[in-house]
């Protein structure tokens, strides 16, 4: 290849010899299930969040959402409010319980749930609201809780993008009702695959601890001591949603690097903002980069699909976060959500990961501005 053409990846994990050594340590122990590594990871997440609220690690962020809803006894006949602009996992977690995912519009240009639209969709079947911290944004969460209090709803925060964030000086996960994090391969930290549920509701926590291990009552304590329950009781539906020690070992090493990762992500997002601010044809999402850990960097543009193709020809990978769930066949609504549909036509995700260089960002911005 010649000229200034280069390959710029949209996202990637960042692992090194520490994670590999941690996995080898678990393999050498010959105990690969849920044990001491998971217990330690949960404790270390709790310390990082600066809270005494309980942490329950599971195998994916989607499992975290699913178990949280089940732990609230949400099921057939119930409804959960959720913004249409989110990954399909949010909707699938709701319908996996037998409940209905009620798609709500979003605010333009933030992409966050529009509570005025949500208000129109509340009825006697509505049991919870699932706000999504889209692109790591947490503004408006107080209004969500006021809304939930007004209608007596539980709040399950889809915080998959928001691990490491602070809101009003407090870590996301240290306050509120229930938060669900994701640790998949490209999140702010990764455990390979994984997720976590955080809450101060102890009865709820016991329920999800059991449910991640097939509903076996209080099996968590046994697993943490490398044992298991042989005589037990089961009172609720459960799943094999627990995290393994191999995944937890990766996550523990990643957690040690969260401040470095956070600083790099913030620095990259701020560089994007500086280079793209005020450019005609590009609208930025107004994010508080001093307090969030940016998971994705999204801009809003016209002719988005043409830009995706043109940028790919320049070696620049981009993404679309997200196609509206209310337009998918399985979740299709009989009503329009105009802001969500406009947002989905215009949103363009630019490369962002901890190994992205300043030169890469300059190249992406230069090509994008040229094409705009």
Task: Please explain how this structure is put together.
With 372 residues, the protein is α/β, with parallel strands linked by helices. Helices cover 38% and strands 13% of the residues. It has 2 domains: 239 residues, Type I PLP-dependent aspartate aminotransferase-like (Major domain) (Aspartate Aminotransferase, domain 2, 3-Layer(aba) Sandwich); 114 residues, Aspartate Aminotransferase, domain 1. A 7-stranded mixed beta sheet has the order 1-9-8-5-4-2-3, with helices on both faces. It has a 3-stranded antiparallel beta sheet with strand order 10-11-12. β2, α4 and β3 form a beta-alpha-beta unit. α2 runs parallel beside α9, α3 crosses α7 and α10 runs parallel beside α13.
How is this structure best summarized?
The strands form three sheets. A seven-stranded mixed β-sheet has the order 1-9-8-5-4-2-3, sandwiched between helices. A three-stranded antiparallel β-sheet has the order 10-11-12. Strands 6-7 form a two-stranded antiparallel sheet. It has helices at 17-29, 36-48, 61-71, 88-95, 115-119, 141-151, 202-211, 219-224, 245-255, 258-276, 304-313, 338-346, 358-371, and strands at residues 54-58, 79-83, 100-104, 126-129, 154-158, 166-167, 170-171, 178-182, 195-199, 282-284, 297-301, 347-350.
